[in-house]
Structure formats: C-alpha cells, structure tokens
Amino acid sequence: MTPIRFRAGRGGRRRLSTRILANELAILALTGLIGFVLFAFAQRAELDRSYEQRALAIARIAVADPQIRQATEYGDRDHVVQSVAQRIGQAAHASYVVVIDLHRIRHSHPMAALIGKPVAEPIVVRDGHSHVGIDQGALGRSANAKAPLYGTSGALVGEVSVGIPERAVLSELWSELPTFGLYAALATAIGAAAASLLARRLKRTTFGLELEEIACLLQDREAMLHGIREGVVAVAPDGRVTVINDEARRLLGVGTALGHRLDEVLPDGRLRRALDGTLTGTDVSVLTDDHCLVVNRMPVSLQGRALGAVVTVRDRTELIGLLRELDSVRGLTDALRAQQHEFTNRMHTLAGLLDIGEHESAYDYAIETARSGQALTEAVRRHIGNPLMVGLIVAKTTVAAERGVTIALTDDSALGDDPPHLRRLLTIVGNLLDNAVDATAEAPPTGEGRRILLTVTEADDLVVVRVADNGRGIAPGTAQSIFEDGWSTRPGRGTARRGLGLALVHRLVQRHGGTITVSEGPGAVFTVVLPQPGTAAARRGALLTHASSRGSELG
Fold this sequence. Notes:
The chain is an alpha+beta fold.
C-alpha cells in the first residue's frame, strides 16, 4: 500500500521561526534591562554600605585623636578641634568631619558659620555605640557615620560625625556599570543564539507549518474525524494510539485508547494484527463479536521519516450479511433451475404416456414422482421436530444434490420442536453444511460418492451438532487456523467473502460457553457442543463474554 506523504507548508506572512526569535529577543532585552536596573540599585546599596564603613573608620580615627579628646572635654579656646578635623577630612576625602559635644554644640564644621551652633538632631551615641546611615545634611546627601567621643578622663564628652559625599558613591557606581552592561549584552547574545536554535528546532518539529496552518489543520482534522462514517485510528511508530474517532471506538469496542498501545486495549487476534500491520493487504476482513469489519492500514511518512500509520475501519456487517444471503439465494436459484429442467423432463414423460394411451402407467408414474419428493422431508421430520430446522436441512440437501453431493441425516439424530438454541443452531448447521458441500463438491469422488453425514442430538444438558464429509479434509497443523476470520483455501465465489463462516460459528459457540473441534486429515469432522441455557458452562461462557466486553470498554 502506498504510504501517505506530507509536504512542508510555506504559508504565512511571517515565518513561525521569525516570530519566535523576535519574541524571545524582546523577552531577553526586557529581562536584561530589568536585571541591569536591579543590579544598579543593589550595587548602589552595597556602595552606600561600603562608604558608611569608610566614614565610620574616619570617625574612629577622629575620636582617637588626643587633641580633639582633650579640647572637647576641657574647652577648645584655641580652636584646635576645627583645624584637626579639617586636616583629617582632607586626608580622608571626607565631605565633613563634625565634632559635637554632649550639649549638641558644633566644635568643627566645613561651614565656619555653623561652628558653635547647636545641631537639630539628638546625640545618638549616648548608648556608647557607633551608628551609620545616609544623611541629608546641609552639604547634601552623604554616607554618614557617628562615633562616640571619650575625653582623656574616659568620660563620654560628645560624638564625631563623618560624611562622604554622594558624588563619590555615584562616581564609583558609574565606573562599575559598563562592566555589568557588557555581561548583560553577552548574556543577551547567548540567549539570542539559543533562541535561534530553538526556533529552528520548532520549525523542524512542526514540519515548516506556520501557526495559521497548524490551526487550520487542527480544525480540518476535527471536522474530518467527527464527520465521516468510518472509523479512523492513527498509530505512532511505537504502537501507541494518537488519534481515534468516535466511530472507531464504537466498532472496535474500546474506551479511552489515546496514549495506549494497541496490545493494551485489544486482545491478541486478527483485529489487532490488522491494526498493527502484521496482516498486510487491502480490505482485510475482520470478524468481531458484533461487527464484520474491513480494515485498511496506510503507513505515513514525511521526508523519508516514518510517522506511524493511519488505519480506516469500515462496518460491513449488513453488507456482508446481504451478500451472503444473496449468494445463498443464487445457489437456491441454480438448484430450482436445475429442478425445473428435471420437472420439465418428467412432464414430458407424463405427457408422452398420456399421448400414447398409457393412462395407468401415467398415473403410476405421477404417484411415484410425488412420493419421491416427499420422502426427503418425511425422513428429516422423523428426527427433527422443529419446522425451521427441517426446512434448512431439506433446502441444503436439495442444493447439495444439484452439485453432486448427498447430505444424509444420521439415525441417532434427535431434536425437539422448540430447541433452546434454535437461532444459533440454524446459523451453525447452515454454515457447517455450506463449508462441507463446498469442500466435498470439489474433491474427487470416492466409491461411496460425495457424501456428508449430519448429526443433531439434544440432551438435557447439551446439544451436539456433528458434520462429517469425505472431502479433502483439513491439512495437518491448521485445525486452529481455520477458525480465524479471513482464513480460506478457496477463492471468492460470487459476491460472498470467504473465510467468515467458520469464524462466525467459532465466535458464536464460544460466546455461549460451547466448544467446537475439527479432525485433521482426509474427511473433515466438525463437532459442536452447546450447553443448555442455565447450565454452569453456559453461565461461564456468558460471564467470559461480559468480562471481555467490559475489558474493551475499560481499555
């Protein structure tokens, strides 16, 4: 079967890979910018902490100076504190070094007018600890540190406040930002390369289809799956079901099969082998408990790469039944046509006897002819009480006789007027006799002629049907294969499909807890045993059938 091949799409104004790349580049640029800003704020805070520690170190140098300690404790008449504080501030590049006594009076300040003036803030070092922070003073924003000042006697006499200007912090921050900007640009470039590779991979994964084409394909697929009257199953290369429509679920008798392997949702048999590709060919016939299906499997590939297969399942139950019925009617028509010729010959003989005046001979001939037609029916009625079964056996015997085959009902046959398995028995006997007639009619004649023996017996707990012929028989090693649907050694005849009769009988017998066996070698003997309703075997068969159907639903 010719595989299905897809061709990559070329539609769309902008390619999917281009759109993906542009979006990812925009995301990378935005995240890079946000990261850059966050880093700047974080680095600013880190630099503030660093300069606060520098200011604290300068303040500790100032509070350790003996001149500042003595002058602050005993009085600064020579303005020593201002000169020493200016010298320390200039050496340390501090914005200011302010010495304040416990009365909040400034003894030093870069602005000379503020010396001797009180500060507005309270003295925070009375607890004996140093304090750091950001100060919004008269000289602007600065990193500030305050250290307790002890006099020469060891008593707390004031505090030293040191500030480093904001411009120093910003200058160092701006010197570090270009390096981080380079890192951000490098990360963006690497991300762009990764985005390009991802876009190419997505393009290969979507077979070159654009977003609009993928959406259209999805809509078309949903409309197709739910709009057709055939079952559709898509199978991945590993045997997992990827697509299944409602009609396929109904025909196959499975429930939620998506994502499951075929061997997980279907029992081993001809149906599963047809779906997984073990059985090859077109219009593969498969017989289930409820349907006669025609299965076709088509491999799917893209640019030489296997993607799995698409399986179509068609319900041909009614059609096959009608074709088999039509084939049976044609057989009956041929038999009636042959009987018409024979009846015409008899009428010619009767007319000739009347024409020559042999009236008594003509009467005897007519009586003999009428009795011969009723003899077969009466012989069957002596053993079979049900009129439907009698009619079936008489019809099959008449058709077989026209093909040179004799069907004989054995003397030990016995069936009541209303057997419990009547409908099943009619199907079983009809199919077994049809197969036996076909096999015997094509076999070379033996000394006793082409002959079929039919036995139908009814007991209290079971019904037995046995059909024996003297045809070619069953080849050794094929006793189990003959019950598979589609198995046949003969070509198709007329419109009917071959290989369904025995499969139908086998499934019918199994569903009702019975058994069917066949002998191998020349002269086939088919034996069917059906338990009577209500027996343990019948209940077991019904239970197994119910469990099988439930297993399919749960699958």
